[in-house]
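Recap from last week: sequence in, structure out.
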Amino acid sequence: MTGRDVVKMAFDFQEPPRVPVTLIGGGVWMVHLAGETFAAIKEDLERIADVFIQAYRKLGHDLFWTGSNFINYPLHFLGCPIEDNSSDGPTLLRSVINSLDDLDSLNPEGVLENPVMQGIIRSQHLVADAIGKETLTMPTQWAPFTFAARILGPEAVMFATLEDPDRLSELIRFSTELIWSIIEPIMEHEDILGANLADPVASGDMISPETFRQFVAPSLKELVDRIRAKGKYSMIHICGDTTRILDDIAQIGPTCFSLEAKVDLGTAKEILGGKVCVAGNVPPTGAFLSGTPEEVISEAKTCIDAWGGGGGYILTLGCDFPKTVPIENAMALMSLKEQ
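Predicted structure tokens:
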């Protein structure tokens, strides 16, 4: 049985013969492992694809996010300067616009028609050509609220939730449509079975449940519904403590919700079990970054025990991980596939 098969069983609330295991994200780690920089490979879709394919070959993820850490490039092509001449994740140097008065200046065609953006999209098809029958592949992209915060700046978005909610909603609508315009053509590949939406600015450590319900949930649900309408799986990742919005996640209804170590897995199972598959939540730092392989395995087994049986669970990290994680520790987590 392939990794793709066991993840599909978990997504469909069947109990697979073993717990699916993966490392979510990891684009920076993969680029570093390959001895590349983002600037060096971003214009060569075959080199981008090879970085991801070779990392998969080393570790054998059951679930694989394509395009990981390439997700700031759409914002760059909207007009934001970027620093990408290392294996560190491409860093936006400022916001795209200075205020919501500049909304009309945003040009989505400049993103979608950019040849580098087109290559990043096509590279994910090459990855699926190579490994899509073995692992469940899905692209990852910022979710609308976080994308809006990258366009305007997180602090300005927080103020806008109170001072200019209508125009903030316009920016979120713009972000929703641009995100869809990026992930829809990626999902046209028959072996790309869904998409992940990463929403760190929607963390319970940053916004209240009320703000989440007003500004985050509607656009997430819209994209989840669009993905489902294409017969694909949807996944959402939100950083930090999301305990107070687990009921909202159930109502949004993604196939899978990826959560951090701040969320108790028993609580997550009580609220989401049988409704939304849960992925998590080994800390990406601590033992995984600087401990021994044996310590990594111990932490991972604690997560498996906390979830218990019954399926609907994927063992993975609680968030993306540093490029300096030893490959031995990454392999140790993946070794849980065999236990």
